[in-house]
C-alpha cells in the first residue's frame, strides 16, 4: 500500500514538474517524458516478483506503446519425437539472440495504433520479435514452428507476457502503467522503451535502463558459487557433514 | 513464507520444502532407505531444474548418511575394508558419472536419461522386492521355509584379486565390490541418489554379505560418493543449492525420527511390500510421462 501511495505522489510531482517546465520553455518542449518508479529491482530472500510503475506525460494527442526487454541471450531449443514409443529430444536449434524477458503495454489495441511495418521495425509484440535462425539450418515453415515453440515456452514460464498490458491515460496528457516482473525474472540490464505514436508513426521514443540483480545473501551465495566453485563445493560438504552430525546427536538424545 | 533459492533461481514456499523433507524423511526412517530416489523426482516435479535437483539432493544425502552411519558405527556394523573398496569404485564411478552428466546436458538428453534410469532401476528393484516380500509372507503362513545354503560357488568366485573381508566373513574377489561401487557411483551422479536401494540388494544377493553390516557399510560408502558428487557438480556445473539442501535436510531429520518409530510397529515383510509398492508407483508415474504425448513438443534447453 505504502509503495502505491508513494508512487502516486511521485506521479503528481512529475506532473507538476512537467507543467512548470512546459510553461518555462514551451518552444522546445519535449513531446514525451516518462520515468520509472524504480531503476533497480533487487532480488532478495523473500522475492516473489514485483511491480514497477511507469509514468509520464505526452504533449498533444497520441498513443503510447511500452516495451520491456530483458538482456538478449542465445537460446537452445529441442523438439521431441517418438523413438521406440518414448518421447525423446531428437532435434536441436539455437536462436542466436532472444530477449530473456519481454512485455508490452499499449494505450489502445496495438493493431489499431501501429501498422505492421512499424511493429516489425520496433519489435512491438511477441509476434514482431526478431528471432532469427541461421537461414541454412531451417526453411521458413520449420523456422516458424521453432519460433512459436520458443514464444510458447517463454510465455508458459511467465517471461514473455501473455497479454498486452494497458496503459491508462489520466486526462489527455498523463499516463501510467504497472509493469509486472515475475519471481523467476532473469537478472541483467533491461531496457524499457516508451514510444509515442501519432497517426501510425513513431513520433518520439525514450529508452530507460532497468537493472534486475540479486542483492544480499542470495547474491553473495550465487557469486561465491560461480566464482569460487571449488570452495563452494567443499563448504557445501562441510555444512552437510555438520548437519548430519548434529542430527545424530539430537537423535541419540531423543 | 516464500524463499528465493539462489542457485535454482526460483521462489518456493519454505513450508513446502520443509514438508517435503519431513515426508520423505518419514518414509526413509520407516523403510531404512535414503529417500533420494523419491526426493529427486519430487523436486523436479515442483519445478526445480533437474540438474539442480540431482546435485542438491546428493548434498542432502551426505548429511542424512552421516547421521545414519554414526549410529551403525557405534554398534560395530561397518565393514571398513569392504567399504573402502566400494568407495574406490564409487569415486571412480561418480567422477565418470558427473562427466557423463555434463556431456548429456550438452546434448539435451539429460532429462530423458534421468527418467529412463529411474524407470529401469526402480522397476527392477521394485518388482524384485515385491516378489520377495510376497513369497516370504506366504512362506510364513505355511511355515515351511527351505534352509538356505551357506555358500553357493559360482563363476563369481573364480575372479582374481581375492581378498578376505573379516567383518563380512567373506573371501571374494575385490573386483566385485569395486564394480558394484562404480555402478552405484555413476547412478549417484546421474540420478541424484545415494544408491542404497541398488547397493543393499547387490551386497546381500551378489556378495553374500551378512545383513547386519550391509546398511552401515553402504552408508559409509554413500557419504564419500555423494560428497564427491556434490563437489564435482558444484565445481563443474554450479548446480548445488545449499539453501535448498539445508531446508530439505532440516525436514528430513525430523521426519526420519517419527518414521523410525512408526517402522518399529510394522513387520519386515509388510514394510518391504509397502516400499516395493511405493517404488513401483514412482516408477510407473515416470514411465507414463515418457509414453504420453507431451503438451509441447518444443522445449527450452539449458544455456551453455
Task: Please describe the structure with a list of short key phrases separated by commas or semicolons.
heterodimer; A: 254 residues; alpha+beta; Immunoglobulin-like; 2 domains; 6-stranded mixed sheet; 12 strands; 34% helix; 37% strand; B: 304 residues; mainly alpha; two-stranded antiparallel sheet; two-stranded antiparallel ribbon; 10 helices; globular
Overview in brief:
The complex is a heterodimer of chains A (254) and B (304). With 254 residues, chain A is of the alpha+beta class. Chain A is built from 6 helices and 12 strands.
- Order of adjacent strands in the largest pleated sheet of chain A: 2-12-11-4-7-8
Q: Look at the structure and give the CATH class of the largest domain in chain A.
A: Mainly Beta
Number of strands of chain A: 12
- What is the 3D form of chain B? globular
From the helix content, strand content and strand pairing of chain B, which structural class follows? mainly alpha
Give the helix proportion of chain A (percent range): 25-40%
Distance between the termini of chain A: 47 Å
Looking at this structure, what is the CATH superfamily of the largest domain in chain A? Answer: Macroglobulin (MG2) domain
Q: What ranges of chain A have pLDDT less than 50 throughout 5 or more consecutive residues?
A: 1-8, 16-29
> Which strand order do you get reading across the main beta sheet of chain B?
1-2
User: Distance N terminus to C terminus of chain B?
Assistant: 32 Å
Order of helices and strands of chain A: HEEEEEEEHHHEEEEEHH
Amino acid at each position: 500500500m505504502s509503495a502505491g501511495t508513494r508512487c502516486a505522489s511521485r506521479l503528481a510531482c512529475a506532473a507538476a514538474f512537467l507543467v512548470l517546465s512546459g510553461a518555462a520553455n514551451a518552444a522546445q518542449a519535449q513531446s514525451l517524458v516518462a520515468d520509472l518508479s524504480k531503476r533497480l529491482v533487487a532480488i532478495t530472500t523473500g522475492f516473489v516478483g514485483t511491480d514497477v510503475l511507469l509514468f509520464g506525460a505526452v504533449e498533444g494527442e497520441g498513443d503510447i506503446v511500452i516495451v520491456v526487454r530483458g538482456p538478449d541471450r542465445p537460446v537452445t531449443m529441442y523438439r521431441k519425437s517418438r523413438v521406440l514409443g518414448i518421447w525423446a529430444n531428437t532435434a536441436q536449434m539455437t536462436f542466436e539472440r532472444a530477449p530473456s524477458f519481454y512485455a508490452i503495454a499499449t494505450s489502445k489495441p496495438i493493431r489499431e495504433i501501429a501498422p505492421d511495418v512499424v511493429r516489425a521495425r520496433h519489435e512491438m509484440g511477441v509476434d514482431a520479435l526478431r528471432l532469427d535462425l541461421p537461414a541454412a539450418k531451417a526453411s521458413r515453415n520449420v523456422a516458424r514452428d521453432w519460433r512459436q515453440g520458443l514464444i510458447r515456452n517463454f510465455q508458459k514460464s511467465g517471461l514473455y507476457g501473455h497479454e498486452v498490458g494497458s496503459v491508462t491515460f489520466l486526462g489527455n496528457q498523463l499516463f501510467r502503467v504497472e509493469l509486472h516482473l515475475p519471481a523467476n525474472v532473469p537478472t541483467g540490464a533491461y531496457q524499457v522503451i516508451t514510444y509515442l505514436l501519432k497517426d501510425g508513426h513513431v513520433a518520439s521514443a525514450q529508452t530507460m535502463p532497468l537493472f534486475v540483480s540479486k542483492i544480499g545473501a542470495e547474491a553473495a551465495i550465487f557469486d561465491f558459487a560461480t566464482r569460487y566453485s571449488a570452495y563452494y563445493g567443499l563448504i557445501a560438504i562441510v555444512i552437510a557433514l555438520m548437519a548430519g552430525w548434529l542430527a545424530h546427536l539430537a537423535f541419540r538424545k531423543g | 513464507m516464500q524463499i528465493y533459492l539462489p542457485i535454482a533461481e526460483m521462489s518456493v514456499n519454505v513450508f513446502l520444502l520443509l514438508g517435503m523433507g519431513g515426508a520423505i524423511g518419514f518414509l526413509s526412517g520407516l523403510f531404512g532407505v535414503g529417500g533420494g530416489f523419491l526426493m529427486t523426482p519430487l523436486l523436479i516435479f515442483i519445478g526445480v531444474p533437474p540438474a539442480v535437483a540431482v546435485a542438491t539432493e546428493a548434498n542432502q544425502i551426505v548429511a542424512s548418511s552421516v547421521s545414519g552411519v554414526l549410529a551403525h558405527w557405534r554398534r560395530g556394523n561397518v565393514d571398513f575394508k569392504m567399504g573402502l573398496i566400494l568407495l574406490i569404485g564409487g569415486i571412480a564411478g561418480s567422477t565418470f558419472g558427473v562427466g557423463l552428466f555434463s556431456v548429456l546436458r550438452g546434448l539435451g538428453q539429460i532429462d530423458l536419461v534421468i527418467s529412463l534410469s529411474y524407470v529401469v532401476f526402480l522397476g527392477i528393484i521394485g518388482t524384485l522386492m515385491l516378489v520377495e516380500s510376497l513369497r516370504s509372507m506366504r512362506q510364513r503362513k505355511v511355515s515351511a521355509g527351505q534352509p538356505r545354503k551357506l555358500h553357493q560357488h559360482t563363476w563369481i568366485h573364480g575372479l582374481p584379486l581375492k581378498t578376505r573381508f573379516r567383518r563380512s566373513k567373506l573371501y571374494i574377489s575385490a573386483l566385485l565390490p569395486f564394480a558394484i561401487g562404480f555402478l552405484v557411483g555413476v547412478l549417484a551422479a546421474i540420478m541424484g541418489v545415494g544408491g542404497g536401494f541398488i547397493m543393499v540388494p547387490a551386497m546381500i544377493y551378489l556378495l553374500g554379505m551378512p545383513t547386519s553390516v550391509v546398511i552401515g557399510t553402504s552408508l559409509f560408502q554413500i557419504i564419500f560418493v555423494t560428497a564427491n558428487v556434490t563437489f564435482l557438480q558444484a565445481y563443474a556445473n554450479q548446480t548445488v543449492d545449499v539453501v535448498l539442501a539445508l531446508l530439505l535436510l532440516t525436514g528430513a531429520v525430523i521426519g526420519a525420527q517419527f518414521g523410525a518409530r512408526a517402522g518399529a510397529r510394522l513387520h519386515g515383510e509388510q514394510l518391504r511390500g509397502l516400499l516395493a509398492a511405493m517404488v513401483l508407483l514412482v516408477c510407473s508415474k515416470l514411465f507414463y510421462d515418457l509414453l504420453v504425448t507431451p503438451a509441447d513438443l518444443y522445449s527450452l534447453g539449458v544455456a551453455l
